[in-house]
Amino acid sequence: STPASAGPATSADGSTPSASAMSELMQTAPDLYADDPLPDFATNLLSRVAEMVGAAGGSIRLDRGDGQGRQVLARFGRPPRPGSDLLRVPLTVHRPYAGELELDAAPSAYARPLAVLTAERLSLHLENDRLRRTDIRRQVWLTFLAEASELLAQSLDVDLTMALVPQLVVPRLGQWCAVHTTDEWGRLRLAAASHADESMLPQLHKVLAETGPDSIQARLREASRSAAQIPLGGPMEGFAVPLIARGQRLGTLAVGRHQRHRHDPDEVAVLEDVARRAALAIENARIHAERRRVAQTLQQSLLPPVLPLVDGIGFAAEYVPTGDDAEVGGDFYDVVPLPDGRWLVVIGDVSGKGVQAAAVTGLVRDVIRVLVGDGKPLPEALARLNETLVERGGGRYCTLALAAVGPGEGDQLDVSLHLAGHDRPVLLAGAGGAGFVGTGGTALGLLDTITSPTAKIALAPGDSLIFYTDGVTERRRGRELFGTDRLRDAAAPLAGYSADVVAARLRSAAINFSVEPPRDDIAILVLRNDAT
After folding, report:
1. How far apart are CA 66 and CA 68, in angstroms?
2. Are residues 311 and 278 part of one domain?
3. pLDDT digits (tens, 9 = 90+) for 286-301
4. How far is Cα 494 from Cα 395, in angstroms, rounded to an integer?
5. Dihedral pair phi/psi, residue 241, rounded to 5°
């Protein structure tokens, strides 16, 4: 700015400001490189105009609408004398800014015009400051909304999503926040709440639980019914907005006012945006929870609830669904009684995942039960099942391992093993040692005719036959697979253990091979000769 010694402030006769003084006042500008140039600029302007009009003192007060009220932006000279007649000029700024210039000056013909000119000069830069701060604030809100969306999208748990919303809102957008959800009867239930002062949480919960025509509960019900913003009176002043997603009314989001000021239009718009995003996140979490429940119910229907207890034969199974618990896998196992008194052990894997794979899995399981229940030999049962899958089409195929087990000579168990494209089981000898047994065959549902050679196996007391799906052998750690050799090596030290222990230890070995959740279902079925 122009130095104060640039020239006299008044004309030679002292009646009006000189041209140089007026020019100096007009050319004064803020320091572009200062962090906050307005206080120094306002002080400079105030001191110049005060000197021009011979004011004993003066001040400039500004309210930025941030809840702080009017603050002194600049001061000059002595404070005004009690009862003095001050010259006041309002600053011409837009809301939420407001302020005035005040001079303790003797009345003169040019004092007010100069004060008005100074106020206008300052107002121009205040308006630039308002626009700059508004732009920065809106950028901050956009960043906040983007971060809130990302946090809300990361959770597919309904309770966790609802608990996260008040944490996002308080204290940035209000002193307190409460999320209520609507049950099937249309009643509101408190799902989550937060307060900037934790000691006030019990009081908040008490007020939110109160009923009556003037209670917050009544206002929340009104917001939910009307799908509109509703103000909330004391003692917890604020407002409520409905939570609506895909046309469904899910509940309400209530927010308490700030400690120092009411919500401005920008904050209200941000809160309404948060409510929309929160409602969508809650609805997505609910849909995912429903999908997970349906998937788990469907998966459980494809597996036997319990394995049979048979004298001299131990059965044990372990099943780990894929990492996506909302997806149904195609792996299954079963133990079925045969008409001749033997037992049929079945383990299979249908290609693909999802409802279509589950439908094929259910079909395979039911067809096997019907065919073997009618006394069909295993090779014929496999051939009929293959015909069914080929006729059905759809590109789905299935690998199967079938083993009919019954008493043999002495304490032995005789096993007739048929493999239809399935991995060979591991024979774990009770005396020690493990190896693969069986002869490979054709997967079902691909070709019109199949081959499935019979392998005869005698299980001595303590011997186990371990069946598994490719979710075990294809478990990944980077580029490395768990593989069949590692499975055999993991089984070898388990000789002599019960079927339950063998199945559980192999499950742990497969799961602990990688920190990643399983990409495919893991199914392990152990058949053991428990004769003593």
Report:
1. 6
2. no
3. 888 888 888 778 878 8
4. 39
5. -125, 150
* Residue-range definition of the domain harbouring residue 311: 305-529
163 within some domain? yes
Given a contact cutoff of 8 angstroms between Cβ atoms, the answer to whether 9 and 18 are in contact is yes
- The answer to whether residues 69 and 160 belong to one domain is no
What pLDDT was estimated at residue 347? Answer: 95
Of the chain, the percentage scoring pLDDT greater than 70 comes to 92
Position 33 confidence tier, pLDDT thresholds 50, 70, 90: low
Decide: 220 and 190 in contact? Cβ < 8 Å. no
C-alpha gyration radius of the chain: 40
Q: What angle do CA 127, 130, 131 make, to 5 degrees?
A: 90
Contact residues for 62 (Cβ-Cβ < 8 A; gap 6+) = 70, 71, 73, 91, 97, 98, 99, 126
Among the candidates 265, 297, 329, a domain finishes at 297
**Considering 78, 105, 135, which residue would you say is the last residue of a domain?**
135
**Are 211 and 217 a contacting pair, CB within 8 Å?**
yes
Positive or negative torsion for Cα 430, 436, 439, 445: positive
Residue 1's pLDDT is: 40
Residue 43: CB partners within 8 Å, gap ≥ 6?
74, 75, 76
φ, ψ dihedrals at 322, nearest 5° = -60, 160
Residues 288, 401: one domain? no
Tell me: do 421 and 437 sit in the same domain.
Answer: yes
Asked if 98 and 65 touch (Cβ cutoff 8 Å), the reply is yes
Distances (CA, A) of 530 to 246, 281, 459: 58, 53, 10
Give the domain CATH number at 277: 3.30.450.40
Backbone φ, ψ for residue 58 (5° rounding): 180, 165
DSSP state of 463: -
